[in-house]
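BACKBONE GEOMETRY TOKENS:
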Amino acid sequence: MKKLALAILMAAMLAACQPAGQAAQSDGEKTPLKVIAAETFLADIAQNVAGDRVKIDALMPIGVDPHTFEPTPADVAKVADSNVLIVNGAGMEVFLDKLLKNAGGQHQTIEASTGLSSRRLREGEIADSDHVGDPHFWLDPNNVVKYVENIRDGLSKADPDGASTYKANAETYVAKLKELDRWIADRVKQVPEADRLLVTNHDNFGYFADRYGFKIIGTVVPSVSTDSAPSAQQLAQLIDHIKATGAKAIFLEMGVNPQLAEQVAKETGRHVVTNLYGDSLGVANGPAATYLDMMKFDTNAIVDALK
């Protein structure tokens, strides 16, 4: 009887000492869950769901453009060593198929945007003939609620023992997203409706515009991807449209070559705002270190330029 009690006690102690966030293997043993998110903003969102149970690593470094990202052999090895890969989906990661093929093995892939539908073009917006839809869902916090739900469910599948933790963390973060949505809507009220006109580097702020009452006047690069270039005729049309509508500024993301935008600004007499964060977070101690901070920073930059 004493031996049985001792065995039960030892089993309980071993279970308590198991590292958090574990994935079951086919032989019944468990290994620490290794999770990678493609983009920095996605890693931050996922970390809020994972909490202290699992460390989420970002595949792309801060400041890297996801549209032109090319995985290195080290990136391939990193993915090969992971259990779960979180991606935005909707055509954002054009490198994904090749990356997974090179990495080999079995990975659970969580597509954060699953269940969301691409926005429809509004009057005056030009269709991108090279891309089916707009993958930049995260620039509306309400879409990120769906991201959180998908990540919660995916992590719970990979780590069933942590399901209650992921559920609780997801609920907490969704509340923060809803608070962010209200904050942005209130901040945008400082811009007269007639001045809520956006000219951006590429077509990525559509969901933000739809949610908060802005109109997309045009883009320097007429595409949802930055891996494109405008023709002289397209730039001339953009210049004419800015003059006709009275749009006050041209907005670029950090790290974007401002040459074309400055050319447009010179022709129109507008100024260029060069410090938005769209596809990547900023440095750890900067003003856009988290997704929530990034959205607040961008909102302030847009409002300050247009009010």
Summary: Residues 1-19 have pLDDT under 50 and may be disordered.
